[in-house]
Fold:
Amino acid sequence: MQKGFMALIALCVIKARAAEAQESKVTLVTDKSVYASSDGQSITIRLKNDGTQSVAAGSLNIFRGDQLVFAALNASPIPPGQSKVWTWNKKSLAGDSVGPGTYRIWVGPNGVGAGPFYRNLLVALTPSGRLAGKSRFPLSIGNEWTFRTNLDGSLTMKVSKQESGWYRVSNLAGANRWARMWGELYPTLFVKLPGAWGPLFGFQRPQGSVYGSFPPFNNFKVGAVNETVMTPAGTFVGCYRLDVLQGGKSFWFAPGVGMVRFSVGVTDFRLRRAKVKGTDGAVYAIGLPD
Structure:
């Protein structure tokens, strides 16, 4: 009796782990993370199955806060290697435009909360289609960026307070630093330590240009001005990349969002979630929910 019971438990554990492995190969993505709220263009939502078994994805639900604004059904399971694609015209179930805000896209088997499988993703609808305009490093109290590493780690960079035009940013380039933006032609993020301050990240420079930076980096080279970066928080186009000379470190910045990726040796940090104050004064979130 005891052996049979233990064998049953072992079988359940194996099945559970197999299900977890299968679910980990299913991804929910949109074509962008930030959209204009009233440009008439639809949002493409894709659930991709890279696993070895079919998965159920019977319900698409879109929320603003706790309010359901849109829903759609899918009767067929998704076979291995295939995707289910929905399009949302940014209108409510009643046919009204939903307006600016943060929206949570939820996909599950048969209704909200049903079954073991679901995926969530946050996207932002703003009046302009950008978060913080063209800024590559938006500084407002409460802005935060959470990164996931290729080694199963995580890190959060957050703007916590402001004093005399300087902003306190946690985990900025490996330390908690005071920072501010200066310059119009070449906007630059400056940082300071007790008794000293200087440039860190310099933007809008031509590709290939080199400039001196504040320690510990000393010299940066502009590696790219228009790269596409894929992250758990979404795909970002028009990214600007800075490479540390002789340092094995690189940083990517998306317009209106901020830093979306950085690499330090073999460790690669990619954006999982961001919360940014937009140019309209509203706070938006993108990426994977908590």
